[in-house]
């Protein structure tokens, strides 16, 4: 059985681990020792690991299991939107020390937030990874990494109706976590390397339409749909990928 490492057992990491359990041996990281112990008690092989964005005065420890892993999935944020580039560099340095010169299949969870909020349909080539600091730094160290630009993470307890939402006439760029897992599993099966994909549901209703459907209110026709739409057509065509949840209005079904 192949071994998969998931760095970051947050909302998405937890669901990926659950969906992949039984197919693969799961190794994961948690932010605290207590959480790592709790995950180990659930049957995962978990260790505590944080990747601070300040420069450490000593080498960051290497993950003992890394040499035995076949696949590595990184779910922790590596974005320069929340910190300066130097802090991001330090964080990636610590992450790189933790995984060393890993040569296996590798996935980085990025975000469709790299695309500007303009009335435009975006494909991957509109914003190349070389323009995004975190993606560029990871690819320079690990040329085999697959970068997945994920839409807004949805499913289970994450439904748009549960949030205070503005700009109701803007299109959504959402993705159900089950489709994220399905895309990764297909890429593992195909042995995909060094690819960049948008991973968003192919339909882009407005926030108002999504909320109405989730509240069992009548669907409405919008005279004008504002905002960006991030397209996953490359993922669909190159991997022959079919979304299980193509319409964000029905993520709750």
Report the strand count.
11
Shape: globular
Overall tally of domains: 1
* Second-tier CATH architecture: 3-Layer(aba) Sandwich
What is the quaternary state of this protein?
single chain
What key phrases describe this protein's structure?
two-stranded parallel ribbon, single chain, Rossmann fold, alpha/beta, 7 helices, 28% helix, 253 residues, globular, seven-stranded parallel beta sheet
Structure report:
With 253 residues, the chain is an alpha/beta fold. It is 28% helix and 18% strand. The protein is built from 7 helices and 11 strands. Helix 2 (33-41) links the parallel strand 2 (25-30) and strand 3. Helix 1 (11-20) packs across helix 5 (177-190). The radius of gyration is 19 Å and the shape is globular. It starts with a strand and ends in a 14-residue tail after the last helix. This is RCK N-terminal domain-containing protein.
């Amino acid at each position: 059985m192949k071994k998969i490492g998931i760095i970051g057992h947050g909302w998405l990491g937890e669901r990926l681990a659950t969906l992949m359990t039984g197919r693969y041996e799961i190794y994961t990281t948690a932010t605290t020792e207590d959480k790592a112990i709790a995950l180990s008690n659930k049957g995962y092989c978990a260790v505590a690991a944080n990747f601070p964005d300040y420069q450490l005065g000593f080498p960051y420890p290497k993950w003992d299991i890394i040499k035995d892993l076949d696949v590595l999935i990184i779910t922790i944020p590596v974005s320069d939107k929340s910190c300066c580039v130097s802090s991001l560099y330090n964080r990636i340095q610590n992450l790189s020390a933790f995984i060393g010169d890993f040569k296996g299949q590798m996935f980085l969870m990025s975000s469709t937030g790299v695309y500007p909020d303009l009335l435009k349909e975006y494909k991957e080539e509109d914003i190349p990874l070389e323009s995004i600091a975190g993606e560029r730094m990871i690819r320079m160290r690990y040329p085999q990494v697959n970068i997945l630009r994920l839409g807004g993470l949805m499913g289970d307890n994450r439904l748009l109706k549960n949030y205070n939402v503005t700009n109701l006439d803007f299109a959504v760029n959402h993705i159900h976590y089950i489709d994220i897992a399905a895309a990764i599993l297909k890429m593992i099966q195909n042995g995909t390397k060094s690819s960049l994909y948008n991973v968003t549901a192919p339909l882009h209703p407005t926030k108002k339409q999504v909320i109405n459907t989730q509240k069992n209110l009548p669907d409405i026709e919008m005279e004008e749909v504002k905002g960006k739409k991030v397209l996953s057509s490359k993922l669909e065509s190159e991997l022959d990928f079919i979304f299980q949840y193509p319409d964000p209005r029905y993520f709750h079904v």
